[in-house]
Specification:
Distance between the termini: 25 Å
Number of helices: 30
Largest sheet: 6 strands, mixed, barrel
Radius of gyration: 43 Å
Shape: elongated
Length: about 1000
């Protein structure tokens, strides 16, 4: 019992060490579990929401639309739980200028169901549900009416459901019709699209650089009132996929098994069958056109024959009259014959034909009538020949005019909202996995320092207990239980902060970017227990080491005071010019610093680790903060990008030119596409959502203006570097040519692409081709891929674009429609922003982007919030570390401090004597921690691979200053706690002999 009481008394006396170990464990467990828990809670709530709304596991798209036969074939695939055929149509409407929207049919099979936020779901034709983004932008509310205009050949269905056939008709199968929606609409509800969880009222409104939407809004309509039997897409649910987390690899493997089956069986067969349907439909239309033309020609021929017969009868009557008159005048018995009723004398054919020609020639009316009949017959014959030639030509051209049908099988990764959320959370989680390692190392170091001093202080007591017969394990348990209790209490508080405090903070920031219904905080018993266990093992290991180091001595040796550390010369003493100019106290300080090497290593290492964490956090913050400025001020040299529909391209250029704001410009073609690493399968695999895929902005440049691209975009070749760096070539040393494409660094880094690699490109029409990467260009935001006009034609087999290299003018060749313009503007940043906003109100402009506005408005709030959290925790760790080291330093040197007081040192002089050593060690730790922080920051930043973003590591000088000043400020703050301890040292009791 006395042993236990003495142990408790010893614990109470060492409360500062207890708090230090508990606080370090608290911070470490909080960092280890907090970021993980926040991301896990977001993952789980999102997964539950996706399952509740039936977000599709697989989506199948086709360049020719999907028929009922395609849907039936998909239902037969092994592993498919549900198949839902979906119809959609792109429409336009007026909302401060022309805006576009996708009319989406609400499926009846429970897949991709919108989440109702306000009002009710539409049930009747003409009713729609809209997103909150539309409500915010339009100012409309439930009950408002809206009129939309279907875009002519705007949707993929109307473009590809039937390509223009040989006879100029739309080549769909005989009974398939493109989807059509009502145009007079009434808003009855506000919904959340499960395919896009972006919060329109939060931070995500500023991250337009990550938007992959092809239209401005999505309207949801019921099946009532929707016509058309051709489907835009088919969405599938996979058996067993709902039981897996959508963000885990197990889910991807489950879905991949089904997509592989579709690629291996259904896809090829249905592509061929669909193309044959289009061919049959085209042949049928040609046959129908031939039959209709034959009928019309037959009717026309019958009319001509009837008219000619009437004409011949009239002429024959005149011939008969003239022949009879002639016979009466010349015959002697004419009267008798007439009296007897004799008929007109018979004429031979030659005489009759001669008389017909004479009569027709003598009558202008008959002549004109004959000419009209002959002309009509001639025209009819020509029309027959021409029609037959045209139909035969179209029959021959039919197979070549209908392209091969392509299917694209995509997973959830192809959804922009899904991939953005996943990449955000994955990147934050990667930081959460890395930082606790530093915290654990610092915790072990500080625990070793604190417990070693604690054991050393009790040397004589340990020797007494061992001499009295107590086992070494029993004696060591005093310290092991002390460390264990401190870890458990600190770890328990750390779990509270880790599973409640930090996740709540992160989720507030996340909810500013994404809408996540049903979000709740959850505790993970396994992960939480392992988090505490990790720090318990580390701290107990340090405690055991400290105990073993002392207890391996005999009880007699332990009961005697430990001999003072022997003095020794230090390196500075050998530098006489310096050493001789140092004062006495300065020499004592220098000797104390380098004589106690363990204290030197622990203090410098602990301070360096904390400083490195602060620098690392600030490095990430600086890197993110400079992304917008570097991209939109440095890399993009143009001030304005204007995009229009193909049909409005000419009007758009005329509008911009007439405003007189442009100083120079470059016409280009911009398409939304996809870049996939070649070599992972067939080029037609269509798996745009695979892990080796990136959404891109394909920029085609006119052949005659390839050299002008360098005036609008800074072209600098880059090569992969280490620790977040990259080798950047000389500005202007990179040129676009016809031998390959230039890929943005942000896409190349994520996919591991480099110069000479082969990639698969998908253009705006969904056509895929394998391209060579000629170079990787420095680019931080967005994923631009630059391609020349000639190489574009070669890749995507654009017939009109061939041979443009030798044409007189790329504009004259009309190979591609230049639907975009990159322009440099005059005026201030504000005026350029205002001008871009005014252009968007013009009907010919689809999108106008001001680089000045993008540079000023670019934000990455989630990363900034996490960095602030990391810096705060690192600062707290630095404070605890300095407090622990300072108290350990004082406890080790109580007799020394008492001696100084006996020698006449005032309290302030004693403070200066002790604190100077700590400040010098802190400065040494800061000097070591600053480059270490840059190194760690580069490694962590390099691991943050996110879609359309490349983190070019940047640490501003101010960040180094902030990290250094913060650490020094913490050291000064610790002095305020240490100085009273120094003041309370009693020289008399401290200098008593231990024996």
């Amino acid at each position: 019992m006395a042993f236990v009481k003495d142990m408790l008394r010893m614990w109470a006396h060492s409360w500062k060490r207890f708090i230090s170990i508990a606080m370090i464990t608290l911070l470490g467990v909080a960092v280890l579990t907090g970021i993980y828990a926040g991301c896990r809670d977001a993952f789980r709530s999102t997964d539950r929401f996706f399952d509740a709304q039936g977000l599709h596991d697989v989506q199948v798209l086709s360049t020719a639309g999907l028929s009922n036969g395609d849907i039936a074939a998909l239902r037969k695939v092994n592993g498919v739980a549900k198949v839902q055929a979906e119809r959609s149509q792109e429409v336009t409407f007026d909302l401060d200028g022309r805006k576009s929207a996708t009319m989406q049919e609400i499926g009846t099979n429970g897949i991709d169901q919108p989440y109702l936020q306000e009002g009710r779901m539409p049930k009747k034709a003409g009713e729609i549900a809209v997103t909150r983004k539309f409500i915010r932008d339009s100012g409309k509310r439930i009950g408002s009416r809206l009129t939309v205009i279907p875009e002519s050949a705007s949707s993929d269905t109307s473009d590809t459901n039937g390509t223009n056939g040989a006879d100029g008709t739309n080549e769909t199968s005989g009974t398939d019709e493109a989807p059509s929606f009502p145009t007079k609409l009434t808003i009855v509800g506000v919904v959340l699209d499960p395919q896009n969880l972006s919060n329109p009222d939060g931070y995500s409104a500023m991250t337009s650089f990550r938007s992959t939407a092809t239209t401005d809004y999505t309207f949801f309509a019921p099946s009532d009132g929707v016509t058309g039997t051709l489907y835009t897409s088919a969405t599938l649910l996979v058996k067993g996929a709902a039981a897996e987390s959508t963000f885990d690899e197990s889910y991807e493997n489950t879905v991949k098994q089904v997509t592989d089956r579709i690629d291996g069986t259904v896809k090829t067969d249905r592509q061929k069958a669909r193309r044959q349907e289009l061919l049959d439909a085209g042949n049928k239309k040609i046959a129908d056109a031939r039959a209709e033309a034959d009928k019309k020609f037959a009717d026309a021929q019958s009319q001509i024959d009837a008219n000619r017969q009437q004409f011949n009868q009239q002429v024959d009557q005149i011939v008969s009259m003239q022949a009879g008159a002639a016979a009466a005048a010349n015959g002697a018995n004419a009267g008798a014959a007439a009296a007897a009723g004799a008929t007109t004398p018979q004429l031979d054919e030659t005489t009759r034909e001669t008389m017909r020609e004479t009569i027709i020639a003598a009558s202008p009316e008959l002549t004109q009538a004959k000419q009209q009949l002959d002309q009509a017959q001639s025209q009819l014959n020509e029309q027959k020949a021409s029609t037959e030639h045209t139909l035969k030509t179209k029959e021959n051209e039919l197979k070549t005019s209908i392209p091969q049908v392509r299917w694209y099988v995509q997973g959830r990764q192809s959804l922009g909202g899904f991939s953005a959320l996943k990449s955000d959370l994955d990147s934050i989680q990667s930081l959460g996995n890395a930082f606790p390692i530093v915290f654990l190392l610092v915790a072990v170091m500080m625990s070793l320092t604190a417990m070693a001093r604690m054991v050393e202080e009790d040397r004589s007591l340990i020797g007494t207990y061992v001499g009295l017969g107590y086992g070494r394990l029993a004696v060591a348990s005093r310290y092991l239980l002390f460390a264990l209790l401190a870890c458990l209490i600190g770890g328990g508080l750390g779990l509270i902060a880790g599973f409640l405090g930090i996740p709540a903070f992160l989720l507030v920031v996340l909810q500013g970017m994404y809408v996540m219904p049903g979000l709740r905080l959850e505790y993970d018993w396994l992960y939480g227990s392992l988090g505490i266990a990790l720090f318990v093992v580390g701290v107990l290991a340090a405690t055991i080491y400290a105990c073993v180091q002392e207890m391996r001595q005999t009880p007699a040796a332990l009961m005697r005071p430990k001999a003072p550390r022997a003095g020794s010369r230090i390196l500075l003493e050998r530098i006489r010019p310096v050493w001789n100019r140092i004062g006495f106290l300065g020499k004592v300080t220098a000797r104390n610093i380098f004589r106690f090497k363990s204290r030197l290593i622990m203090t410098v290492g602990g301070v360096a680790g904390c400083t490195a964490l602060i620098v690392c956090g600030l490095a990430i913050n600086d890197t993110v903060a400079d992304l917008g400025i570097k991209q939109y001020r440095d890399i993009y040299q143009y001030d304005l990008m204007v995009v229009s529909d193909d049909s409005d391209a000419s009007a758009m250029r005329t509008k911009v030119a007439s405003d007189g704001r442009v100083t120079s410009s470059l016409d280009v073609r911009i398409e939304s596409g996809d870049l996939t690493v070649a070599g992972s399968g067939d080029g037609d695999s269509g798996k745009a959502g695979s892990s080796g895929s990136e959404s891109i902005q394909l920029v085609a440049v006119p052949e005659k203006h390839l050299s002008d691209l360098g005036e609008m975009v800074t072209l600098q070749p880059v090569s992969s570097g280490m620790l977040g760096t990259s080798g950047v070539g000389k500005t202007g040393s990179l040129k676009l040519d016809d031998d390959g494409v230039i890929v943005a660094q942000s896409a190349a880094s994520a996919l591991g692409v480099k110069a000479g690699s082969k990639v698969r490109l998908t253009n705006g029409d969904g056509v895929r081709a394998t391209a060579k990467v000629s170079a990787v260009n420095r680019n931080l935001i967005g994923s631009d891929v630059y391609v020349s006009e000639t190489y574009y034609a070669k890749l995507f087999d654009s017939k009109d674009a061939k041979n443009t290299k030798n044409s007189k003018s790329s504009e004259d060749s009309e190979a591609l429609t230049w639907n975009a313009m990159l322009a440099k503007l005059s005026g201030s940043d504000t005026s350029q922003t205002d001008y871009a906003e005014s252009l968007e109100e013009d009907s010919s402009v689809m999108k106008a982007v001001s680089c000045a506005h993008m540079a000023d408005s670019f934000k990455f709030d989630l990363m900034g919030a996490v960095v602030a959290l990391i810096v705060a925790l690192a600062g707290g760790l630095a404070l605890v570390v300095l407090f622990t080291l300072a108290n350990t330093n004082v406890s080790e040197r109580v007799r020394e401090m008492a001696t100084l007081k006996v020698l006449g040192f005032f309290d302030r002089e004693v403070h200066h004597y002790v604190n100077r050593e700590m400040m010098i060690l802190t400065v040494m730790g800061v000097i070591l921690g600053l480059p270490l922080g840059r190194l760690v920051g580069g490694m962590l930043t390099m691991a943050l691979n996110m879609p359309s973003l490349y983190f070019e590591v940047e640490v501003k000088p101010l960040s180094y200053v902030i990290a250094a000043v913060a650490t020094m400020a913490f050291a000064l703050l610790v002095q305020l706690f240490v100085n009273p301890v120094l003041d309370r040292i009693d020289p008399i009791s401290s200098l008593k002999s231990v024996e």
